[in-house]
Automatic annotation (TrEMBL):
Residues 136-242 form the Metalloprotease TldD/E central domain. SUPFAM superfamilies: Putative modulator of DNA gyrase, PmbA/TldD. This is PmbA protein. Residues 249-457 form the Metalloprotease TldD/E C-terminal domain. GO terms for molecular function: metallopeptidase activity. It comes from the Bacteria. Belongs to the peptidase U62 family. It comes from Cognatilysobacter bugurensis. One of its GO terms (cellular component) is cytosol. GO terms for biological process: proteolysis. InterPro entries: Metalloprtase-TldD/E_C, Metalloprtase-TldD/E_cen_dom, Metalloprtase-TldD/E_N, PmbA, TldD/PmbA_N, TldD/PmbA_sf.
Length: 458
């Protein structure tokens, strides 16, 4: 099987003609598979990648860093029966490639059998390879990138005289090419670009200083927010946090702003991922088919979105991706599995080796303002701090900052607080999901209102 996604993309300034480079990487991969077979490997897989990027950072009107990168990597994994060995290199010389294969084989010969080891099942390999419009090189040089970053920071610093300092602004552009091939005969190619523009500003002085920022990401530079808009939003967010007040400790409704809400979905994904499940290190072990959310909650995986941040026809093992429900009518429909974890659990891969592809969380409410009105009184969270989430028990406790809400209106900023609960209970307490989707992540969700959490005031 030779599955290759078509593309009509323009050549890249940094990596050259993407199709020519992918042809070269595919040739290297297939040559390495032949070497693995010649050394007696019963199965083998090869990943080849090339990346190039430009990144600039400015602060207070001065250039801090300009960085140009170019990386490549070759990873070889062989199986002798159910014994596995892996090795990698960045050197494309024939002698180095040969040594990499030999090292992988040597490792495999001295490891123990693992009954779950091996390639994903051949019947699961992707055959319908598609182009998702993910290749949009940005013809930008360092000088232009610096100008954009300076314009972004300057726009923010001019918004309000209380913005007296800056953590800087940045512009980055990256291109990546990848080929995955295995001894089932599968050869898959992927290529994508990723661009970003961000700014972080500081308002106030001394102990009263507050920091906040904003950023924009896209596969195509034309889809980025304007530099001036990013800077102004960073300034407005920083200024809005000045003069925070205390709130009494208690149990309140908590509204997670959309840019924060996706972390809740991330905790769900982590808890239903194969590694945590077969190690029994998750509070959602044996939870497939059980009701975790109110019946109106649905979460769908959509790997075929044009210009999706995580679109793909195959996962990191060549398994075909598919559109499917993760949660439907509040019920967990399946786990998130690659082939290894699936075998450990006695199940089949869900095409999620390497992660999920474009999760879309269905909304049941209106925009952000309507969610604030719906909450009436409670806490809006716009920033989370710390790592206080226990995946084994589901216990959740994190530092937070945001705004107090009364009578459906934002009243004043708050910080230095802690919000706590248990993820299972928090999932059950979802009261609304807004239509204000933050597009800057492959987890696409609006703001999420949780009916009640413990809030410890500063």
């Amino acid at each position: 099987m030779n599955a290759i996604a078509p593309s009509h993309a323009a050549p890249s300034i940094a990596l050259g003609d993407p199709q020519a480079r992918l042809d070269t990487l595919a040739g290297i991969a297939q040559g390495l598979l032949e070497r693995c077979r010649a050394r007696g490997a019963t199965q083998a897989e090869v990943s080849c990648s090339e990346e190039a990027g430009l990144s600039v950072n400015v602060r207070m009107g001065e250039v801090e860093t300009v960085e140009s990168t170019r990386d490549r990597g070759i990873a070889v994994t062989v199986y002798f029966g159910q014994r596995k060995g892996s090795a990698s290199t960045a050197d494309l010389r024939d002698s180095s490639l040969d040594a990499t294969v030999e090292q992988a084989c040597a490792i495999a010969r001295y490891t123990e059998d693992d009954t779950a080891a091996g390639l994903a099942d051949a019947t699961l390999m992707a055959t319908d390879l598609r182009d998702f419009d993910t290749w949009h090189p940005w013809a930008i040089d360092a000088d232009r990138a610096v100008d954009l970053a300076l314009a972004c920071e300057n726009a923010g610093r001019e918004v309000d005289r209380r913005v007296e300092n800056s953590d800087g602004a940045s512009v980055s552009s990256n291109e990546s090419l990848g080929v995955y091939a295995n001894s089932h005969g599968f050869v898959g190619r992927e290529h994508a670009t990723h661009h970003s523009l961000g700014c972080a500003l500081i308002a106030g002085r001394g102990a009263d200083m507050q920091r906040d920022g904003w950023y924009s990401v896209a596969l195509a530079a034309d889809d980025l927010e304007a530099a001036s808009a990013v800077g102004r939003k960073a300034a407005e967010r920083a200024v809005s946090r000045l003069s925070p007040r205390q709130i009494p400790t208690g149990d309140y409704p908590v509204l997670f702003a959309s840019e924060i809400a996706r972390s809740l979905i991330g905790h769900l994904v982590g808890a239903v991922s194969g590694g945590a499940l077969y190690r029994r290190a998750s509070f959602l072990v044996d939870s497939a088919g059980t009701k975790l959310f109110p019946e109106w909650v649905s979460i769908h995986e959509r790997p075929f979105l044009p210009r999706g941040l995580r679109s793909g026809s195959f996962d990191s093992e060549g398994v075909a991706t598919r559109e499917s429900s993760l949660v439907e009518d509040g019920v967990l429909q399946r786990y998130v599995l690659g082939s290894y974890s699936a075998r450990k659990l006695g199940l089949q891969s869900t095409g999620n080796a390497g992660g999920v592809h474009n999760l879309q969380v269905a909304a049941n409410a209106g925009d952000f303002e309507s969610l604030v009105r719906t909450m009436g009184r409670g806490l809006l969270v716009t920033e989370l701090m710390g790592q206080g989430v226990n995946t084994i028990t589901g216990d959740y406790s994190r530092g937070a900052a945001g705004f107090w809400v009364e009578n459906g209106q934002l009243q004043y900023p708050v910080d230095g607080i802690t919000i706590a609960g248990n993820l299972r209970g928090m999932f059950e307490a979802f009261e609304a999901i807004g239509s204000d989707v933050d597009p800057r992540s492959h987890v696409r969700t609006g703001s999420i209102l949780v009916g009640r959490m413990t809030v410890a005031g500063g």
